[in-house]
C-alpha cells in the first residue's frame, strides 16, 4: 500500500493512493515528466478515426483537439465505474475553465436510454461521442474501461489514467493543476 502522499514510481510514472479509489497512475509517454518541444514529435497522437455524435453523424476525432488540453475518457454505457466518473469529470471541466476540455467517448454498442439520461442530465457540459466500432480504443491500446487520456492542443497524448477516478478529489485536482502548469511550458 502506498502512502497517501504522492510518490515517484519507477521510470516516469507518478503514483498516489486515494482512499476508496485505489492507486492511480499518471503515466508519462516519453522520457521525462515534461518533454521539450524538440521531443514533442515522439509522443503518440490520438488515432485519426471518425466518431459519431449522438445523432449518429460522423465527426472526425480531430474536432476534439485544439483546446490547451483535453481529457478524453473512454467509457461504456454498461460500465458502472465509467458512469460514476461522469459527475466528477463535469465538475473538473467547470473548475478548470478554458485550460482543460473534457469529453467522453462511448466504446462499443451504447444503451440508448443510458445515453439519453446522460444527455438530459449534463447536456453540453459533457461532450459525448460514440465509437461503436471501437477503433478509437483499439488505436489507443485500451483493454479496460474507464481509461482517460490527457491530450495537448496538437492531439499528442501526454498522459493516461487507468481506472475510475474521483476527479473532484482535492489531491487529484492539485496534481492535475500542477501537471497542466508544467505541460503548458512544453
From TrEMBL:
GO molecular function: antioxidant activity; oxidoreductase activity
Pfam (any one): AhpC-TSA
Main localization category: other
BP GO terms, sorted: cytochrome complex assembly
Keyword Disulfide bond: yes
Domain Thioredoxin per the UniProt entry, residue ranges: 40-181
Localisation per UniProt entry: Cell envelope
Highest rank taxon of the organism: Bacteria
Signal peptide (UniProt feature, chain positions): none
Gene Ontology annotations for the cellular component aspect, listed alphabetically: cell envelope
Keywords for the protein's UniProt record, in alphabetical order: Cytochrome c-type biogenesis, Disulfide bond, Redox-active center
PROSITE patterns per UniProt: THIOREDOXIN_2
CDD domains registered for this protein in UniProt: TlpA_like_family
Protein name stated in the entry: Redoxin domain protein
Amino acid at each position: 500500500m502506498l502512502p497517501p502522499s504522492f510518490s515517484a514510481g519507477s521510470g516516469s510514472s507518478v503514483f498516489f493512493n486515494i482512499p476508496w479509489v485505489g492507486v492511480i497512475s499518471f503515466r508519462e509517454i516519453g522520457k521525462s515528466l515534461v518533454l521539450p518541444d524538440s521531443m514533442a514529435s515522439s509522443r503518440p497522437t490520438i488515432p485519426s478515426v471518425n466518431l459519431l455524435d449522438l445523432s449518429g453523424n460522423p465527426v472526425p476525432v480531430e474536432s476534439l483537439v485544439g483546446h490547451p488540453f483535453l481529457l478524453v475518457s473512454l467509457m461504456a454505457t454498461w460500465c458502472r465505474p465509467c458512469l460514476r466518473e461522469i459527475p466528477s469529470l463535469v465538475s473538473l471541466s467547470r473548475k478548470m475553465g478554458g485550460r482543460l476540455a473534457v469529453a467522453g467517448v462511448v466504446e462499443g454498442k451504447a444503451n440508448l436510454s443510458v445515453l439519453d439520461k446522460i444527455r438530459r442530465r449534463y447536456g453540453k457540459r459533457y461532450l459525448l461521442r460514440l465509437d461503436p466500432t471501437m477503433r478509437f480504443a483499439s488505436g489507443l491500446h485500451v483493454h479496460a474501461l474507464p481509461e482517460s487520456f490527457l491530450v495537448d492542443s496538437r492531439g499528442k497524448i501526454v498522459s493516461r489514467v487507468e481506472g475510475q477516478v474521483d476527479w473532484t478529489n482535492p489531491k487529484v485536482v492539485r496534481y492535475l493543476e500542477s501537471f497542466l502548469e508544467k505541460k503548458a511550458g512544453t
